[in-house]
Amino acid sequence: QVQLVESGGGLVQAGGSLRLSCAASGRTSSSYPMGWFRQAPGKEREFVAAINWSGGSTYYADSVKGRFTISRDNAKNTVYLQMNSLKPEDTADYYCAAARAYYLTTPVPRPTDFGSWGQGTQVTVSS
Question: Which residues, in sequence order, are CB contacts of 115 under 8 Å at separation 6+?
Fold first, then answer.
């Protein structure tokens, strides 16, 4: 089991930037793909971005391509989500997750592909 703790959320104006961090501990987290999901009030949890174990492959939801960047530092057991050009529709609780398997089989992973989740960090983008 992997323990995940997110940080970096907050309130930002439209067009601004935030960087989320996810610190991992427990199971050898650096061996597994990691992902970010988000959930807005009244909506289902949706995929945002994912990264393979080495950081050499990244995947993004169409809604964030070109604005968000996922990265990882395995020496620090930390995954990051750099969010630029934020929009009000990016407002949500953001969750970090560790994959169940060593490899992702789809460029748009589902929440069920991930077995460990953080508690979430809130991001609010004002217009």
Answer: 2, 97, 98, 99, 100
Report the alpha-carbon distance of residue 82 to residue 110 in Å, rounded.
21
Residue position matching structure tokens 């592909």: 113
User: Which among 109, 107, 127 has a CA at the least distance from the CA of 12?
Assistant: 127
One-letter-per-residue 3-state SS of the chain: CEEEEEECCEEEECCCCEEEEEEEEECCHHHCCEEEEEECCCCCCEEEEEECCCCCCEEECCCCCCCEEEEEECCCCEEEEEECCCCHHHCEEEEEEEECCCCCCCCCCCHHHEEEECCCEEEEEEC
Residue with the larger pLDDT of the pair 29 and 101: 101
pLDDT at 2: 87
In contact, 79 and 72? CB cutoff 8 Å? yes
